[in-house]
C-alpha cells in the first residue's frame, strides 16, 4: 500500500510579545540555535516540497494535516 505525505506552509502568524512568553529551552539541541539559520533551514525544507505527488497537483483543496509528537 503506497502512501503520500502532504506538507503545506501555514500562513505566517506573529505573536505579540508577552510577559508569559518563555525563552526557548531546546534551542541548539533539537533545532538550530541561530534564528537566521533556522529560518533558512525551514525555508529550504518548504522549498523542497514538490508541485505534485503521484500526478496530483498540490496543495490538495480541503486537505488538512495534523502534526503531533
Secondary-structure element order, N to C: HEE
Task: Note the beta-strand portion.
Answer: 5-15%
Helix/strand/pairing class, anyone? mainly alpha
Poorly predicted parts: none
**Biggest β-sheet: strands ordered side by side in the sheet:** 1-2
* Count of DSSP-assigned helices: 1
Span of the ends, CA to CA: 24 Å
Main beta-sheet annotation: 2 strands, antiparallel
Shape: elongated
- The percentage helix is 10-25%
Number of strands: 2
Mean pLDDT: 79
Radius of gyration: 16 Å
Structure description:
The chain has 69 residues and is mainly alpha-helical. The chain has a domain at 26-69. Strands 1-2 form a two-stranded antiparallel sheet. It has 1 helix and 2 strands. It is elongated and about 45 Å long.
Question: How do the strands and helices of this protein lay out in sequence?
Answer:
Layout: H1 35-47, E1 52-53, E2 56-57
Antiparallel strand pairs: 1-2
